[in-house]
Amino acid sequence: MPSPPGGAVTAQLEPVVADAVADAGFDLEDFDVQQAGRRRLVKVVVDADEGVGLDEIAVVSRTVSEVLDAHEHVLAGSYTLEVTSPGVDRPLTRPRHWHRARNRLARIALVAGGELRARVGAADEDGVTVLADGEIRRVAYRDVERAVVEVEFQQPPAQELAKLEQAAGGAPERGADREDTEESR
């Protein structure tokens, strides 16, 4: 019996894989099934607020493998499972991506033209507060053409983090001001 095309397989399996990933405590960022020679390549990209480490990838891999094995009739043959987390160059396209990028530096291309290099602050369902060129600014998601996190090799300046926290109406996050207290030792 010939196997269905990859798009149909992806559509059939994505809901059950998404449920399994959610039950394991993660978000399904991407799911794809492609033909790779005689086998299918099943690619699963997961994320979480605290990030995803190797141990978590192993847990998700086992969980997804069990679900795929239970739906082997859809795959109609052998498959290779690849479970990974998004790379640092993953675009910020959803509110949860912006939440996870809090305090990180981002390059933001605006729909109206121009680009911001800004530190990400508090985010909600409609937009994000950023610190760009020393100024707090609100950016609506609808005004963002593309945004990605920039890799930094040192801690963000404490004064920038404090300014973002003040804009959010809260006290600086632990570690932002680096005061040495009994509680932080």
TrEMBL record:
Transmembrane segments: none annotated. Residues 92-153 form the Ribosome maturation factor RimP C-terminal domain. It comes from the Bacteria. Pfam families: DUF150_C (PF17384), RimP_N (PF02576). Residues 174-185 have a biased composition (Basic and acidic residues). Keywords: Cytoplasm, Ribosome biogenesis. Residues 159-185 are annotated as: Disordered. Belongs to the RimP family. This is Ribosome maturation factor RimP. It comes from Saccharopolyspora cebuensis. The lineage of its organism: Bacteria, Bacillati, Actinomycetota, Actinomycetes, Pseudonocardiales.
